[in-house]
Request: fold
Amino acid sequence: MAACGGKGGTPTPVTPSAVAESSINDLLLTPDELNKTLGTTGLVGRPPKDGMDDHRNLLPNLNCLGVWQIDESVIYSKDGKDLKSGQDWKAMRQQTLKTPDTDQWDYLAAQSVVYYPTSDAARNFFNLSAERWAKCTNHHVNIRLNDQPLPKWLSGNLERTDTKLAMPITRGTGPETRWCQHVLQRVANLIIDVEACTPKAPVTAAADIATKIQANIH
Reply:
C-alpha cells in the first residue's frame, strides 16, 4: 500500500491502522539483510523464538532492564512490574544473530516484533517504556554471572519521538569495547524492539533495522 507524498509526488509507505498477527512471521530481516545493515559478513542466527526472556536476577532495576535487553517478560507484563499481572501482548518473534558466534562476538543484531491486539495497548507500552528509559540515561551497569563479571555497560542520552526511542550503549572497555544502539519503535499495534552492536562508533544500525522491518509491513 502506498500513497503520494513528499516532493514530486514520490510514493511513501502507508502503515495500516492495524497489523494482522499472522504478518509478524515475515517481518524480521534475513541474515543477508542484517549483514548489509551492520556492514559485516557471516552473521549466524539462532532459530527464531516466540517467547520472552527473564533476566531480573541479573538486573533488578526495571528502569534499566528494558534498555539492557530486548523482550524482557516482566517489562512487557501488563503492569510492567510483575509477571502475575498478565500480559497485553499476544504474539512475538525474536532472533539474535552474531559474528563470530561466540561470547566474544564483534557484531550482534537482536531483532523482534511484538504483536498487540490494539494500537492503544502498544502505545501504552511504548509510553511506559519512554518513562523508564528516561530514568536510565548515562547509567553504568555492572553485572556478574556465575561469579564472573559481564562486560561493563554504559547508556547514553535518550532520543525520543512519538513513535521511537533510541539509546546509545557502550559495552566493554579498551579493545573489547563494542558500540551499541537499542531502539524501540511503535508501528500501529506492533512494537519493534531491536539492539545492534559493532566494533565502531557511532552506531545507528538498530534504527536502520527497525526502519527496514517497518518497511516490510503492508
